[in-house]
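SAMPLE LOG
Freezer: B-3
Tube label: C17
Construct: single chain, 161 aa
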Amino acid sequence: MASIKGITLKRVQHFRGTDGSGVNADIYMDGKKIGDAHDGGYGGGLDVDINHEYSAKFKKRVETYYKEHPSSCTGNEWFMEELIALHDYEKDYKRNARKGYPIMVDMKFHARLATLDDILSMLKNDKVIFCVDEKTLEVNLKKHEPVVYTVYRSLDDFIIR
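STRUCTURE (predicted):
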């Protein structure tokens, strides 16, 4: 199950909102439900509600994650956006692995420390490609030349410790 620093999602539901797509998810830490995330798809951002008794521990894990994975976009909302994306990537990986594509590469055309404006303008260029073997992966990396990329070869790759 996709996880960042022991924080996972369950009951993730994507839906169409009035001004874009929305998402609901239950947030778990070390197997215990600690809160929920909600984006109503009305043009605002993601709301992250963590139960008070877990908020300090959750905040510490988020901070630790960003110390180990520096980014110009930090905080609970960005962390949850990354976790939701990781969850969705894992779901796509499972579906495509069953179809004979056991390698997935997430290519970004912006650096994690880029300005917010640069990141938002480059998001549309990001790509996820599924490959049948290492040679196909190598060809795609040379062809697209991403700034950064992450390769997923097994379900363990969706667990960030």
